[in-house]
Write a structure and sequence with these properties.
The complex is a heterodimer of chains A (about 220) and B (about 120).
Chain A lengths: L27 E3 L37 E9 L10 E6 L24 E5 L5 E7 L4 E3 L5 E3 L2 E6 L8 E6 L18 H5 L4 E2 L10 E4 L2 E2 L7
Parallel strand pairs in A: 2-11, 2-12
Antiparallel strand pairs in A: 2-5, 3-4, 3-8, 6-7, 8-9, 10-11
Chain B lengths: L25 E8 L9 E7 L3 E6 L5 E6 L4 E8 L6 E6 L6 E3 L2 E2 L4 E3 L2
Parallel strand pairs in B: 1-7, 1-8
Antiparallel strand pairs in B: 1-4, 2-3, 2-5, 5-6
Classes of the chains: A mainly beta (about 220), B mainly beta (about 120).
Chain lengths: ~220, ~120
């Protein structure tokens, strides 16, 4: 048995400032035995997604309120090579900071034109693109006056099931960064920067939507 | 330099739907428990093996999940939840001939592999 491992800039499981870890963070961690290493993982294809799934602003009769944005980037392996045809799933609050989920009790308005969920496959270059609206910050019960910085949740697969990553993408310059125990759970400030998208004028659609770029680097080892 | 993990949070169900394995006669089922022994009703359980494929099941109000799948010797299991800043990883193995295998996940009592 080994103790806390903070590998690759990942957060530790134990994080007292994030209260939900108290009863959920695992206490007994072991290195994976060599014979259990499995380089395989799920393979996705066009039937797993609908092209419309990547535009979160066109899933209802009307357009959602909020600041329209294009979020794009590449899914890469640890050698910086693109991972094509892999599934990227996103979910987020609406522009008012409210999730379309029964458990969310934040008294901000739901938007009848926004569910806040999307998915797509990366292309041959490892690139994904979503059109959505910028999510709002919202309060949570973690500590007095706790507010989450605006973020989009990402779920990403690599080549192997062991490479599976769920993370959150943040927006540059958010004044809530210093006060958010989930963002701050990544102890290494350089690693934390990798959670923050960059404003990308190249991805911006003039007169239509601001572009943000967010590359996701997985621990997948490159193909030989 | 890899992208750090962040918790799946409490609202993932709006975006991460359940997904069946390659269907078959075997069944894996169980309950996810927290350190107080309480069921975890907002966990996401994913399984994988080359034979059984990939499956995803969000736990119900009683913390329960289940998968039906094709013959395989084991399933790699990953569990995500609010309060887990990264997933936990374990492996379920099956006795020969066992149609139904119970595999509870006790987040603070069970041993997991480092992710």
């Amino acid at each position: 048995m080994i103790g806390q491992i903070e590998d690759l800039g990942d957060p530790p499981y134990d994080c007292p400032e994030y209260r939900s870890t108290e009863l959920r963070a695992p206490k007994r961690l072991y290195l994976l035995p060599e014979e259990l290493h499995d380089p395989t993982g799920p393979v996705f294809g066009a039937s797993d997604v609908d092209p419309g799934d990547s535009d979160l602003t066109r899933q209802h009769a009307g357009e959602p309120l909020g600041e329209r944005i294009v979020v794009s980037g590449r899914v890469l392996d640890s050698g910086g090579r693109p991972i094509p045809n892999t599934l990227v799933e996103v979910w987020q609050a609406n522009a008012a900071g409210r999730y379309a989920h029964d458990v969310d009790r934040h008294p901000a308005p739901l938007d009848p034109n926004f569910t806040g969920a999307g998915r797509c496959l990366t292309d041959a270059d490892g690139t994904y693109t979503f059109v959505t609206v910028k999510p709002g910050a919202y309060p949570w019960q973690n500590h007095p006056n706790a507010w989450r910085p605006a973020h989009i949740h990402f779920s990403v697969f690599g080549r192997a099931f062991a490479d599976r990553l769920v993370t959150q993408m943040y927006f540059p310059g958010d004044p809530l960064f210093a006060h958010d125990p989930i963002f701050q759970s990544v102890r290494d400030p350089i690693a934390r920067e990798r959670l923050i998208s960059t404003l990308d004028l190249e991805a911006t659609t003039p007169e239509w939507a601001l572009g943000y770029r967010f590359d996701v680097a997985l621990r997948s080892t490159p193909f030989e | 330099m890899t992208t750090p993990s962040q918790t799946v949070g409490p609202f993932f169900a709006i975006g991460l739907d359940d997904h069946p394995c390659v269907e078959g006669p075997l069944r894996l089922e169980g309950c996810v428990h927290d350190g107080a022994g309480e069921p975890v009703p907002d966990a996401m359980v994913e399984v994988w093996s080359p034979q059984a494929g990939w499956g995803r099941c969000n736990t119900d109000a009683d913390g329960r999940y289940s998968f039906s799948f094709r013959e395989t010797q084991h399933l790699d299991v990953q569990v995500f939840a609010r309060g887990l800043l990264k997933q936990v990883r374990t492996r379920a193995t099956f006795a020969p001939g066992a149609a139904i295998t119970t595999f509870d996940v006790r987040l603070q009592d069970d041993a997991f592999f480092v992710v």
